[in-house]
Amino acid sequence: MRNDTRPLLSVRNLRTSFFQDEGTTKAVDGASFDVAPGKTLGIVGESGCGKSVTAQSILRIVDRPGRIVDGEIVLTRADGSQTDLTKLEPNGREMRSIRGGDIGLVFQEPMTSFSPVHTIGAQLIEAVLLHNAVSKKEARRRGIEALRSVGIPQPERRIDEYSFELSGGLRQRAKPRRGGGDGRRRGGHVSGPGGRARQRR
After folding, report:
1. 129 and 102 in one domain?
2. Same structural domain for residues 77 and 176?
3. Is 78 helix (H, G, I), strand (E, B) or coil?
4. What is the mean pLDDT of residues 13-33?
5. Which of 2, 77, 167, 170 is the most exposed place for a label (fewest CB within 10 A)?
């Protein structure tokens, strides 16, 4: 069992820069913070100060020519083990399993939260299957229960609808469930104007 007094996520001296012909942009310059179990951490700042790049750095999804140049991002997992995400390959198997399984990024804009060409259910089921060794039938059941857990009416019907058939409010409710599958684990949150990074337990 993990020591509950330890942060779920610990960021230390994080520096992420973008290297371009015109020069180097220091998007994140020495950020440090902890996310405690069951707590929400709000990151506040003016536009362009690096809030979104901080979240992208945690998930290792910073677009080129950007890259992390210094710092630690230590994730404490459910079994108590700790992993420095800066040491992992961004597209490696372990980082892909963490992304959406242990940590997810939920953007605030509901209109772009889901693919418009796939049903809500297809996207929920994909997330469940990615992070759980279950059948498609069980993944669908979990998807329905996830929609029900956030107050979406008639989840058995909604799961087969497309995102454009849902209101913006319903899309906002459904999006966190897509990010981590069945939503049964609980953790901390890092929130900012551009989106919210959720860590699950």
Report:
1. no
2. no
3. coil
4. 93
5. 167
